[in-house]
Each structure stands twice: as structure tokens, then as C-alpha cells.
Amino acid sequence: MHFDETYMxxxxxxxxxxxxxxxxxxxxxxVVTRDGKILAIEAHQKAGTxxxxxxxxxxxxxxxxxxxxxxxxxxxxxxHQFLLGLPPEFFSECTIYVTLxxxxxxxxxxxxxxxxxxxxxxxxxxxxxxxIVGHAGGSQKLKNVTLGILEEECQALLEPxxxxxxxxxxxxxxxxxxxxxxxxxxxxxxxxLRHVHQLxxxxxxxxxxxxxxxxxxxxxxxxxxxxxxxxxxxxSKDRDFDKDIPLFNVPDRExxxxxxxxxxxxxxxxxxxxxxxxxxxxxxxxxxxLIYQTPKLSTNDLxxxxxxxxxxLHQEKKDVDMILWSRQVGD
Length: 331
Prior knowledge:
Shape: elongated
Low-confidence stretches: none
Number of helices: 8
Number of strands: 13
Distance between the termini: 37 Å
Helix content: 25-40%
Strand content: 25-35%
Strand order of the largest sheet: 9-8-7-10-6-11-13-12
Order of helices and strands: HEEHHEHEEHEHEHEEEHEEE
């Protein structure tokens, strides 16, 4: 069991790198082993492309065969066809670890549960069952299944996916120095800035406060990824804004000024960028806070002057920065 937890943790760590970026799909990680040796560690990366299990099996195939596949591994249909065309016993001595129960349904991609059933691996180790009605049941198609390894951690990884099925998942992004200061221009590394723009690229709405718009005059685009800029909602009772502020002049985007947060009742992914005022206004409606902490100290006066208890869900490095996925706890 100790080894099961070790391999599942590797799958979790890989999946967290794509947390949010797979919207509207969940973040999922997978590891393939044989005789105690790790053959592959992969994660689902983008909705509509190959799932974590498929990417891990393709990587394991390359490791075992010492060859490279000659097709787009993110094309799920081609990937499934390739894996199903391998000799029946190819993966018979392998174990796959996956943070979420393999999908049983056919959607934009073929069923991973059916694929694993055909490949007949020695073991399938699953972190948590699929909570969505109509999607679950994949494990029942499989033999030699172990369920519930690091289940609590796998459910935490899955939490945004569960929330945005029924209402908006609200993620507040903030960047700060190691002593909690937030002013003075860009604080984050290029890797962190790119990650922010990747999240902007996939979210339904980027929410920002009116005061931040007026003071910072931001653009709020995706220039570090080259993608379409997100649609913006400005939360403000005063609808008077200087329309020369850059965010109003980004092509192919919608900018709405709203006085109510009722739109958060609709299933979606809402990313929030703002200062202390916006954080306080949303304190009761935030799901997670994503902190980009840069290793520097600053004398700037600006900070988030608020009482809030957090629990850290996951942490990783982005260049020199530490990024902390966190959830509010208590009152």
C-alpha cells in the first residue's frame, strides 16, 4: 500500500500542474509502472484532447518499445486506435494509477474505461470515483481494481470540477512578495505570468473591481500565450470609466460593468484579479485563492489587509516563484 500511495502522489503532483487549464474537464493525473519501475507520469492537459490514462500509456509504450509514436498524441481517437492495435499482452504486467475513475462514457473522446478493459492491465489503482451522474461506473468494467488511494487528496484536486457543474467556481488570483506586499508593478516571474495567462485563456469570465481598473489601467489579455483575451466583468456601482483604459480596446472580447454578483450562480469558471476591496467583497463567495509568491521583500505599502484563514492544497515552483493553491477555512 505504501508504494500505491507513492505512485498516486506522483500522479497528483502532475495533475496539479494543469489545474484549471483543463476546464471544463477535471484535472487528472496518471502513472504507469511495471515491476516497481515507473514507466510514465502524465496528466490531462486540455479539454477535448487525450486523457491522462491515454497519455501515460502512450509514454509507457515509448519507454518499453524504445520507439516514438508518429502521430499527434493529443488526438484521442488516434491514440485509442493505436493502443488497441498493440499485441493483447503488451501491458499485461503493468499497473496504472489514476487520480479519477476512468471515464465510462463516450464524449469528445472515447471511453478510457473501455480502453483499459481491452488492454487488460495487471492492476488499475484509482484515487476517487467519478462524482458525475452518467460518468461513473468505469471501475466496474475493470478487473483487479484498487479504489480509494489518497482519496481525500484526489477529491481536493477534483473540487473545482464538482463546483462548476452547479455554479461558478470562483478563483481569486493574487501576487505578492514574501512579506505580503502587492504594489510596485510586476512581481511575478515570466513563468508565473504565463501561467496566469493560461488560466485567463480558459476561464469563462475574468472579474475585476472598478477601483483596480481606474487606478491600474490594465490590459488583462493573454499576450504571453497568444490566445484570445478573456471576457471581463467589472464589479462597480459607478459605471463611468475612461474608455481609453487598455482593457476596453482589446479586440474580440466582451466587457460588462455589473453591480450584482448574481451571475456567480451560473455554472462556469470565474477568475478574479483585484486588490483588497475586491477580496473583501468576495470573501464569502470565494472557493480558492491562488497565490503567486515571489522571493523578494518590498517596502511598498500596498497589501491585503484582511483576516482570512487558509489551508494550502498544493504548492509548486514557477521559476523562482512559489505558487500556492489554497482554500479558505473557518470564519
